[in-house]
Amino acid sequence: AALSVVLHWVFSSSDLEEAAGAGDVGASVLGGFTFILGFLIVFRSQQAYARWWEGGTLLQQLRGEWFNAFSNVLAFCNTSADRQDEVLFFENQL
Predict the structure, then answer these.
(1) Which of 3, 35, 38, 86 is deepest in the core (most CB within 10 A)?
(2) Are 23 and 17 in contact (CB under 8 A)?
(3) What is the pLDDT of residues 18-42, one digit of tens each?
(4) pTM to 2 decimals?
(5) Hey, is 94 helix, strand or coil?
Protein backbone atom coordinates (compact mmCIF):
# COMPACT_ATOMS: atom_id res chain seq x y z
CA ALA A 1 0.00 0.00 0.00
CA ALA A 2 2.86 2.35 0.81
CA LEU A 3 4.46 1.65 -2.56
CA SER A 4 1.28 2.58 -4.40
CA VAL A 5 0.99 5.83 -2.43
CA VAL A 6 4.59 6.73 -3.25
CA LEU A 7 4.13 5.91 -6.95
CA HIS A 8 0.91 7.93 -7.08
CA TRP A 9 2.66 10.89 -5.46
CA VAL A 10 5.64 10.63 -7.87
CA PHE A 11 3.42 10.42 -10.95
CA SER A 12 1.09 13.21 -9.88
CA SER A 13 3.83 15.63 -8.78
CA SER A 14 5.85 15.48 -11.99
CA ASP A 15 5.43 15.13 -15.71
CA LEU A 16 6.26 11.42 -15.56
CA GLU A 17 2.60 10.56 -16.00
CA GLU A 18 2.54 11.96 -19.53
CA ALA A 19 6.00 10.63 -20.36
CA ALA A 20 5.21 7.12 -19.20
CA GLY A 21 1.73 7.12 -20.73
CA ALA A 22 0.17 6.13 -17.46
CA GLY A 23 -2.92 8.33 -17.57
CA ASP A 24 -6.13 6.35 -17.99
CA VAL A 25 -4.29 3.06 -18.37
CA GLY A 26 -2.73 3.45 -14.92
CA ALA A 27 -6.12 4.11 -13.38
CA SER A 28 -7.54 1.08 -15.16
CA VAL A 29 -4.73 -1.17 -13.95
CA LEU A 30 -5.08 0.18 -10.42
CA GLY A 31 -8.83 -0.43 -10.53
CA GLY A 32 -8.32 -4.02 -11.69
CA PHE A 33 -5.70 -4.61 -9.03
CA THR A 34 -7.98 -3.17 -6.35
CA PHE A 35 -10.86 -5.38 -7.49
CA ILE A 36 -8.75 -8.55 -7.43
CA LEU A 37 -7.23 -7.66 -4.07
CA GLY A 38 -10.67 -6.95 -2.59
CA PHE A 39 -12.04 -10.22 -3.98
CA LEU A 40 -9.16 -12.20 -2.47
CA ILE A 41 -9.54 -10.53 0.93
CA VAL A 42 -13.27 -11.25 1.01
CA PHE A 43 -12.72 -14.84 -0.10
CA ARG A 44 -10.07 -15.47 2.56
CA SER A 45 -12.23 -13.87 5.23
CA GLN A 46 -15.17 -16.09 4.32
CA GLN A 47 -12.95 -19.18 4.41
CA ALA A 48 -11.57 -18.22 7.82
CA TYR A 49 -15.07 -17.57 9.17
CA ALA A 50 -16.31 -20.92 7.87
CA ARG A 51 -13.36 -22.71 9.48
CA TRP A 52 -13.99 -20.89 12.76
CA TRP A 53 -17.62 -22.03 12.79
CA GLU A 54 -16.63 -25.57 11.88
CA GLY A 55 -14.15 -25.63 14.77
CA GLY A 56 -16.81 -24.36 17.16
CA THR A 57 -19.26 -26.98 15.95
CA LEU A 58 -16.72 -29.77 16.37
CA LEU A 59 -15.85 -28.49 19.83
CA GLN A 60 -19.51 -28.60 20.87
CA GLN A 61 -19.82 -32.11 19.44
CA LEU A 62 -16.72 -33.19 21.38
CA ARG A 63 -18.15 -31.72 24.58
CA GLY A 64 -21.39 -33.60 24.01
CA GLU A 65 -19.57 -36.88 23.45
CA TRP A 66 -17.55 -36.47 26.65
CA PHE A 67 -20.68 -35.51 28.59
CA ASN A 68 -22.48 -38.57 27.28
CA ALA A 69 -19.57 -40.85 28.17
CA PHE A 70 -19.25 -39.44 31.67
CA SER A 71 -23.01 -39.71 32.21
CA ASN A 72 -22.87 -43.38 31.21
CA VAL A 73 -20.02 -44.02 33.62
CA LEU A 74 -21.94 -42.39 36.46
CA ALA A 75 -25.12 -44.25 35.57
CA PHE A 76 -23.56 -47.71 35.41
CA CYS A 77 -20.98 -47.42 38.19
CA ASN A 78 -23.21 -46.74 41.12
CA THR A 79 -23.20 -48.60 44.42
CA SER A 80 -26.88 -49.40 44.54
CA ALA A 81 -27.60 -52.98 45.55
CA ASP A 82 -30.50 -53.15 43.08
CA ARG A 83 -28.24 -52.65 40.08
CA GLN A 84 -25.26 -54.72 41.19
CA ASP A 85 -25.66 -57.21 38.31
CA GLU A 86 -25.74 -54.43 35.72
CA VAL A 87 -22.66 -52.79 37.26
CA LEU A 88 -20.69 -56.04 37.16
CA PHE A 89 -21.70 -56.61 33.55
CA PHE A 90 -20.59 -53.08 32.62
CA GLU A 91 -17.27 -53.38 34.48
CA ASN A 92 -16.48 -56.64 32.69
CA GLN A 93 -17.11 -55.05 29.30
CA LEU A 94 -14.31 -52.57 29.77
Answers:
(1) 86
(2) yes
(3) 555 555 666 778 888 899 999 999 9
(4) 0.50
(5) coil
